[in-house]
Amino acid sequence: ETEMTQSPVTLSATPGERATLSCRASQAVSTYVEWYQQKPGQAPRPLIYGASTRATGVPARFSGSGSGTEFTLTISSLQSEDFAVYYCQQYYVWPRTFGQGTKVEAK
Amino acid sequence: QVQLQESGPGLVKPSETLSLTCSVSGGSIKNYYWGWIRQPPGKGLEWIGWIYYTGTTKYSPALESRVTFSLDTPNNQLSLKLISVTAADTAVYYCARLGHFDEGRGRYSPDSWGQGTLVTVSS
C-alpha cells in the first residue's frame, strides 16, 4: 500500500497569506495525485486532479504541482472560506490512499 | 445535478452486519463507477472500493473479505454490506460518483459525494 504523508499537520495563517501544503508518497506515483478540501460536517470536495488540474469551479488561487513522490498544494492568497482540512490522495495504484490531512486554521 | 444520499442504521452491534444504501437522484447510475469511502471520527479517509454499473467490483484488500457492493438499477440505488463489524468500523460512510475521467491517466475519480452517514459499532 502506498503511504501518503502530509506536512504540516496544522498550518496557522491569516487571510491574504500564501499557504503551501506538502504531500509525499512512499513510492513514485507519477502525477496521479488529487487534492480535496473538507470542512466540518461536509463531504470532501475535489480541488485538483492529475497533480495540477483544477476541478470545475475551483478558484484560480488554488494550484497544484509535483510528480513522482513530492507534491504541493498552494493557496496563493487565503480567503476566509479556505480554512479547512486538505487531503492529498494517490490513484496510481490500488487501493487509492489518502494522506492524514493538513488543517489550515486562522492564526 | 446529481445528488447522492446515504442511509442506514446509525448503530450496529459488534459481530453483526452493517448495511447501507446510497440513493442517487438527478441522474442515472448507468455508465458510471460508484465508490464507497469511509472516515472514522476525527481521522482521515479510507477507500472501501468501487462498483461499475455493470456490477464489476473492486475492494480494498484490507476489507475485501468482509465487504460486498451491489446495485439496484431500477431504483437507482447502490448498497454496501460489511460483515463481522468491530469498533474499528465506526466511521462516516460516503458514497461517491466517479464521474471525472482523467483522460491522460485513464482513471475515473469522484466528482460528486453524498453527505455521509455515521455508523457506530457498539453494543
Q: Helicity of chain A, in percent?
A: under 10%
> Structural class, from secondary structure content of chain A?
mainly beta
On the 0-100 scale, what is the average pLDDT of chain B?
A: 96
Main beta-sheet annotation of chain A: 7 strands, mixed
Uncertain stretches of 5 or more adjacent residues of chain B: none
Main interface by residue count: A-B, 26 and 24 residues
Rounded to an integer in angstroms, the radius of gyration calculated over CA atoms of chain B is 14 Å
List the helices and strands of chain A in order: EEEEEEEEEEE
Order of helices and strands of chain B: EEEEEEEEEEEEE
Number of strand segments of chain A: 11
Helix-residue proportion of chain B: under 10%
pLDDT averaged over residues of chain A? 97
Count of helical segments of chain B?
Answer: 0
Shape field of chain A: globular
Question: Would you mind describing this structure in some detail?
Answer:
The complex is a heterodimer of chains A (107) and B (123). Chain A has no helices and eleven strands. Chain A is mainly β and 107 residues long. In chain A, the strands form two sheets. In chain A, strands 2, 4, 5, 6, 9, 10 and 11 form a seven-stranded mixed beta sheet that branches. In chain A, a hairpin with a 2-residue loop joins strand 7 (62-67) and strand 8 (70-75). Chain A is globular. The mean pLDDT of chain A is 97. Chain B is mainly β and 123 residues long. The chains are: A mainly beta (107), B mainly beta (123). At the A-B interface, strand 5 and strand 10 of A face strand 5 of B.
